[in-house]
Design goal:
This protein has 81 residues and is of the alpha+beta class. The chain has a domain of 46 residues.
Length: 81
Amino acid sequence: MKALTLALILSLPVPRLAPPAKPSLTPTSTQPAGKAGRWYLAATGHAVYCYGPVMTLPQGSGLLRVATFCRGGETMVPLKD
């Protein structure tokens, strides 16, 4: 009986395990690597994604807040207060 059980177990097919898929080496995001940014509301009412700091610049009789180095090649975008 033991021999019959052993023969039955050894005759079963053994499934082959596929090796795990290698991760892709190409970046999948559209954002440049290593640059974290933030969304801001521009003075025009549109949302803009900028990587640089927010600066306050003198403008006429007051101050103007601008976001720097924004997506789309814009260097400075005036922000809505």
